[in-house]
Design brief:
This protein has 94 residues and is mostly helical. It has two helices and no strands. The longest helix is centred in the middle third of the chain and has 51 residues. The radius of gyration is 27 Å and the shape is rod-shaped.
Length: 94
């Protein structure tokens, strides 16, 4: 005696919808990671540009102590930015 299995259109529709949602979810996560990485890259470049402008402006004063203070502040800003973006990148890659 052979058993016939009837295809249930509702179950098939639910399974198809579930597969599509899973696929969409995976794509959304990947897009989010790419966007997060792009944001962090842009943030880092922007901070570097602002800090470089700050240092250049300080050097135009031809006052040695102002140049030293600006260099120290610029180094600090770069290190903080580097730490922040590094930590954020590790979270984005999870």
């Amino acid at each position: 005696m052979t058993t016939q299995t009837k295809a249930n259109p509702i179950t098939d529709s639910i399974e198809t919808a579930n597969e599509r949602v899973s696929e969409f979810s995976g794509k959304a996560v990947e897009s989010g990671k790419k966007a997060g990485t792009m944001f962090l890259d842009s943030y880092e470049k922007t901070v570097d540009a602002v800090v470089d402008s700050y240092v250049k402006a300080a050097r135009t004063t031809n006052v040695e102590w102002i140049t030293h203070v600006a260099d120290a502040q610029a180094d600090f800003a770069r290190e903080v930015t580097k730490s922040y973006t590094s930590a954020a990148r590790s979270l984005v890659s999870i």
